[in-house]
Each structure stands twice: as structure tokens, then as C-alpha cells.
Amino acid sequence: PKLSKIKSVFTIHNIGYQGIFPREKLPLTGLNQEEFFHPEGLEYWGKISTLKAGIVFSNAVTTVSPRYAEEIQSREYGMGMEGILCAHRNKLHGILNGVDNKSWDPKKDKYLPATYDVDQKEGKRVCKERLLQQLGLQTKGTKIPLLCMVSRLDKQKGLDLLLEVIDDLMKEELCVVILASGDKKIEAKLRKTVSRYPQKMAFIKGFDEAMAHRIIAGSDILIMPSRYEPCGLTQMYALKYGTIPVVRATGGLDDTVQEFDPKSGKGNGFKFRPYEACEFLAALKHALASYSDQRQWQRIISNAMKSDFSWRRSAEQYIDLYESILE
User: Fold this and answer.
1) Which of 2, 69, 87, 158 has the maximum number of C-beta atoms within 10 A of its C-beta?
2) What pTM, to 2 d.p., does this model score?
3) Both 137 and 268 in a single domain?
4) What is the enclosing helix (H) or strand (E) of 246?
5) What is the domain range of residue 70?
6) Is residue 324 situated within a structural domain?
7) Average pLDDT score, the chain
8) What is the pLDDT of residues 125-160, one digit of tens each?
9) 98 HSE (CA, 13 A, CB side)
10) Domain-located, residue 258
């Protein structure tokens, strides 16, 4: 009885993980079947859904970005839970994740061959030069753009779009480095593609913390063509390091990346919306065109590095939410 009075907040990170179990497992929870196993409770298509339980029985539901909170109420992104989420929309809140400024700071990063900040960017050029040498990619100094992807090899992450546009992309003067691991079939396709462009592409399997820092610092452009992205942290790391993101406008990517406007000089990256190869390629070429105008590019870098994704702002929103449900 005492515990029943405690307020609760349930956070959805990725709606795709729904905690679905056979009905026969209900006794393991200690919950009464008549009281909880019904359409307004745990029951979900004849099974138990712990995700649904969290949504239904909590006092508030949060997601890791405002845009994702909107998206999961639609059929495209809700993965079968959209009806339940719409029914409980009044307690749904999107609060953006923050970045650990101690671990990700180009001015103090222990993994980099040279450090830098928004006012002194020379260290970024050194990081790029060392990275290109380490990867064995052809270079004309550090003038040609270096694109990177630090990700999982997963259908969610949009590798299929990259593989679809890569031949067109390789017609440009640029290099691409990918740090990733995951799906074996995607890996095989990626390795085959990289083998066709050994002087312009590099693939590093697995995840290495130091290498992730060096790739993000040494690259000019980060690519994240995700099908969906609850929040995404890599684009926020990239922005702090002056590496300009080209992303699909979904979830936290849409919240954190603002399309650069040459007229106003505002914006910190480039976006595309329909999940189509032609749209992705157009966004990449838009970014490359801006890169060719170094005065404009330096403006975008400055905007990016001044972006604020500290936990302070997010923490304040969580505190406000906690206080509101206690009233």
C-alpha cells in the first residue's frame, strides 16, 4: 500500500524494444492476472508487454528527445505502440539527452594528437593530417574533405543509403572512414565496397574509444542517415568537435542539427527528410559545396562548436517534471 503512493516516471529510449513475454510468465511478476492482464493493463495481443505496462501505469513518460516523443505517436515510428502512446499523450514528454563535457572536449581530449577550441582551430587540421596518415588514405594535404561514420552496422543506421550513393559520392574529391561493427551481412557489403576504393575509403571494425575520438576530431563531415534515431549522441560529439553533421531529420537528429542558412549565417549542419538515396546524396553535395567555400565553412564550424548540449539544461527539465508530478 505504501509503494502504491510513490510517483513514477518511465523513460522510453527505443520503442523497438518492447519487453514482450508469453502470458504464462505473468506469475513470475507476482502480479494478479485479473487485476493487470487486460487491454488497459499489461495485455498486448495476448501476451505481456512490460513497455506497455510502463506507459500505462507511470505518472509520466519521457523519451530522449522532443521530436522522438512526437514521432512514436505515429504508425511510421510507433512500432505498434502508437495507439497506446496517443491515448497517454498528455503525460508524454521529450527531454533531450546531454553530453559528458569531461569526456568529450576537444580542448582537453587526451586521445587527440593536438587539441583545439572554437577560437584556435589549428589543432583540428593536425588531427585530420594524422588520421589520414594512419588510415593510409590518399591526400592532397588536408584540403579534400574527410567524411566519417561512427556507428553500429544496423538497418536502423542507414548504411543501405550510404552504399546506394557511394559510387556517385566517390566521383567527388573526398575520403570516407567508417568505424562500426554489427550485422555480418552489412559488414560484408561494406567491405566489398571499400575494396573498390582503397585510396579513398577505410573501414575499421569494432569500437575503440580512442579511435572514435580521433576520427570525429579529424573528420570534416559526420554522416548519420538513420531510419530513426531516438536521440543520437554522435552528432552532438561531432558538433562540439567542429565536425559538421549531415543527418536525416528524425528524432534527436532533427532536434540537435539546424540546417545552415547562408543568408543569415545561422545553422550547424545539413539535413534531409524522406528516407531516399537521392535526398541523402543531395544533402551531402550541399555540405560539400559549403566546404568548398572555406569562409562559409568556418562559420558553420564556429556555430557547431558553440552548440550547447550540456546535461544542465536537460537536468533542469527533469527536475521540473519530477516536481510537477509531485504536486
Assistant:
1) 158
2) 0.93
3) yes
4) strand 244-248
5) 3-94
6) no
7) 95
8) 999 999 999 999 876 667 899 999 999 999 999 999
9) 14
10) yes
* In the predicted structure, residue 89 carries a pLDDT above the cut 90: yes
- Sign of the CA dihedral running 234, 160, 210, 64: positive
Look at residues 87, 88, 98, 103 and name the one whose alpha carbon lies nearest to residue 65. 98
Other C-beta atoms lying within 10 Å of the C-beta of residue 192: 10
Per-residue pLDDT, averaged over 272-299, amounts to 97
Q: Which helix (H) or strand (E) holds 217?
A: helix 209-218
Written as nine digits, the cell of 87 is: 491515448
Q: Which residues of 229-243 are buried (b: 16+ CB within 10 A; e: fewer)?
A: bbbbbbbbbbbbbbb
Residue 196 lies in a domain: yes
Question: Tens of pLDDT along 239-265?
Answer: 999 999 999 999 999 999 999 999 999
Structural domain includes residue 79: yes
Compare 137 and 10 and report the one with higher pLDDT. 10
Backbone angles phi, psi at 220, to 5 degrees: -95, -35
- 148 & 282 share domain: yes
In this structure, the answer to whether residues 180 and 290 fall within a common structural domain is: yes
Check whether 2 has a pLDDT greater than 90: no
User: What is the three-state SS of 71-113?
Assistant: HCCCHHHHCCCHHHHHHCHHHEEECCCCECCCCCCCCCCCCCC
Domain boundary among 57, 76, 94: 94
80 and 200 part of one domain: no
Question: In the chain, pLDDT over 70 holds for what percent of residues?
Answer: 99
Total domain count, the chain: 2
Note whether 36 and 177 are same-domain residues.
no
Within this chain, do residues 129 and 57 fall inside the same structural domain, yes or no? no
